[in-house]
UniProtKB/TrEMBL annotation:
Signal peptide: none annotated. CDD domains: FABP. Transmembrane segments: none annotated. This is Uncharacterized protein. Belongs to the calycin superfamily. Fatty-acid binding protein (FABP) family. Keywords: Lipid-binding, Transport. One of its GO terms (molecular function) is lipid binding. InterPro entries: Calycin, Fatty_acid-bd, Lbp1-4. It comes from the Eukaryota.
């Protein structure tokens, strides 16, 4: 009986530890360079003017801050718009604003050294909105991992893979 209790406690500790974001993800990261970023947005159907004015020219800073034992803030700050998600728990859905200005169901998860940020738009009429960011009612998943000292964001759509490299500041 004591062995079974000990095993249950150990499993609970292992699962709890698996639900925390590693410390190396916390910090402030400025965009350093990108690869295939314009091609990615083109594949998603964004026109030249939108890509040039609002997407490719916008500087981005990621600020990831630990707020509790198992919570964190994830801020995407740009010259055009800021997105701030507060007190996130890995694996728990919440409603937050997307780059298009509409509400999304957002889930952050972590597996095998990769932080996943999944967005599912909740506003079925969002694609009718006139906004600087043309909107497609599709889910998106952004992946974050480290290559040497850089935080790398990977975006993929219809076989086009884009990467954004962020330097810790």
């Amino acid at each position: 009986m004591k062995v079974a209790s000990l095993v249950c406690i150990l499993l609970a500790v292992v699962f709890a530890a698996a639900e925390n974001l590693p410390d190396k993800f916390f910090g402030t990261f400025d965009i350093n360079r990108s690869v295939n970023f314009t091609e990615y947005w083109e594949a998603k159907g964004y026109g030249y003017t939108t890509r040039w004015r609002f997407i490719t020219r916008a500087g981005v800073t990621k600020v990831i801050t630990k707020t509790g034992d198992d919570t964190f803030n994830f801020d995407s700050l740009s010259t055009k718009k800021d997105l701030k998600y507060k007190d996130i728990k890995l694996g728990e859905e919440f409603i937050g604003e997307g780059w298009d200005g509409s509400n999304h169901t957002i889930t952050f998860s972590f597996k095998d050294g990769v932080l996943y940020e999944k967005h599912v738009p909740t506003d079925m009429d969002a694609e009718q909105k006139e906004d600087e960011y043309r909107f497609h009612f599709e889910e998106d998943e952004y992946r974050f991992h480290f290559e040497e000292d850089e935080l790398v964001q990977t975006l993929e759509y219809n076989g086009v893979i884009a990467k954004k490299y962020f330097k810790r500041i």
